[in-house]
Amino acid sequence: MSVLVNKDSKIIVQGFTGSEGTFHASQMIEYGSNVVGGVTPGKGGQTHLDKPVFNTVKEAVDTTGADVSIIFVPPAFAADAIMEAADAGIKVIITITEGIPVKDMMNAKPYAKKRGATLVGPNCPGVITPGEAKVGIMPGFVFKKGKVGIVSKSGTLTYEAADQVVKAGLGITTAIGIGGDPIIGTSTKEAVQLLMEDPETEGIVMIGEIGGNYEAEAARWIKENGNKKPVVGFIAGQTAPPGRRMGHAGAIIGGADDTAEAKMKIMAENGVHVVKSPADIGETMLKALS
């Protein structure tokens, strides 16, 4: 089992023929992901990377039966791309684009949800089920199949956590990079819930950062639902000064509960195994599982 993406996923790339879309689509194909085509308006009928190009997502879905889309469309047009994918019946929409205006996401997120699509991102590294499908920009070689799920706001820390977990001999079921923007499609709690319900996932790594209440909400949900699987948590930005944005658009301390310290305290109170350094993730998970 896996969540969101697997070997049966039929993937299209929106923004297929652009430089980012081309580079990452070729990496995904090389990994073995089932990329069935791509969308670039005005270039329909051509082939690119030996795959068909379509003018619209609807054409791509009608022709290929695609159910997953990855978006590399520039920020000004990315929200439209999300809504187009949802309209065409795509079930999982993974948005890599960084810098989508918040106002645009306020429209796109409920639009996708209303149409039954799961939106991951924006400003995220994507989703990977090792050995089956890589739908994102992560280095595939870091991820090996196993029994630990990862949920992370940070791209680079997703890779670090995966490396730690693999080196501990545990491996990964699915890693979900949820993104670091103020408005994202899938929250930490929702991603944790998916992994809690996955029979092959035995433990979960939850990586958050300062700003917002996603991690606190997830930690409370984990406890309310009986701490069924061990969760190891880490919060980035422990030395961040209040009021200053750190890297991600959503990583800003707005109140007392937004600090790393406050989040770590809430997580610990709700039964999450909190680590102060990402270097301890693998070892802590190994202990929690044994």
Automatic annotation (TrEMBL):
User: Carries keyword Protein biosynthesis?
Assistant: no
Q: InterPro entries attached here?
A: Cit_synth/succinyl-CoA_lig_AS, Citrt_syn/SCS-alpha_CS, CoA-bd, CoA_lig_alpha, NAD(P)-bd_dom_sf, SUCC_ACL_C, Succinyl-CoA_synth-like
Please name the catalytic residues of this protein: 248 (tele-phosphohistidine intermediate)
Pathway given in the UniProt record: Carbohydrate metabolism; tricarboxylic acid cycle; succinate from succinyl-CoA (ligase route): step 1/1
Q: Which Pfam families match?
A: CoA_binding (PF02629), Ligase_CoA (PF00549)
Record-annotated CoA-binding domain positions? 4-100
Residues reported in the UniProt entry to bind substrate: 159
- Top-level class of the enzyme under EC nomenclature: ligase
Entry keyword Nucleotide-binding: yes
- Spell out the SMART domains in the cross-references: CoA_binding (SM00881)
For this UniProt record, the keywords arranged alphabetically read as follows: Ligase, Nucleotide-binding, Tricarboxylic acid cycle
Molecular function (GO) terms for this protein are:
nucleotide binding; succinate-CoA ligase (ADP-forming) activity; succinate-CoA ligase (GDP-forming) activity
- Tell me the GO BP annotations in alphabetical order: tricarboxylic acid cycle
Catalysed reaction equations from the record: succinate + ATP + CoA = succinyl-CoA + ADP + phosphate; GTP + succinate + CoA = succinyl-CoA + GDP + phosphate
Amino acids binding CoA: 17-20, 43, 96-98
This entry's Enzyme Commission designation comes to 6.2.1.5
GO cellular component terms, semicolon-separated: succinate-CoA ligase complex (ADP-forming)
Quaternary data: Heterotetramer of two alpha and two beta subunits.
User: What family is reported?
Assistant: Belongs to the succinate/malate CoA ligase alpha subunit family.
Its function, per the record, reads:
Succinyl-CoA synthetase functions in the citric acid cycle (TCA), coupling the hydrolysis of succinyl-CoA to the synthesis of either ATP or GTP and thus represents the only step of substrate-level phosphorylation in the TCA. The alpha subunit of the enzyme binds the substrates coenzyme A and phosphate, while succinate binding and nucleotide specificity is provided by the beta subunit.
NCBIfam families reported in the protein's UniProt record:
PRK05678.1, sucCoAalpha
Q: What is this protein called?
A: Succinate--CoA ligase [ADP-forming] subunit alpha
Say which species the protein is native to: Marinoscillum furvescens DSM 4134
Q: What is the lineage of its organism?
A: Bacteria, Pseudomonadati, Bacteroidota, Cytophagia, Cytophagales
